[in-house]
Specification:
Length: 53
């Protein structure tokens, strides 16, 4: 899987193991409030998570 690693940041492709945390984050009104969005349901989170199995 591709990764981007710098001195201050490490990014990798999301996996199924990341799903629960991702759903919790995007379903939290306090998180999405700061980016002008609305909380996502589990189904919406699955569709836009970018998770690779």
């Amino acid at each position: 899987m591709p990764e981007l690693v710098t001195e201050r940041l490490a990014m990798c492709v999301p996996t199924l193991a990341d799903f629960e945390s991702s759903v919790a984050m995007w379903g939290d009104p306090d998180v999405v409030n700061h980016i002008g969005g609305k909380p996502s349901t589990r189904e919406e989170g699955w569709g836009c998570s970018g998770i690779v199995s």
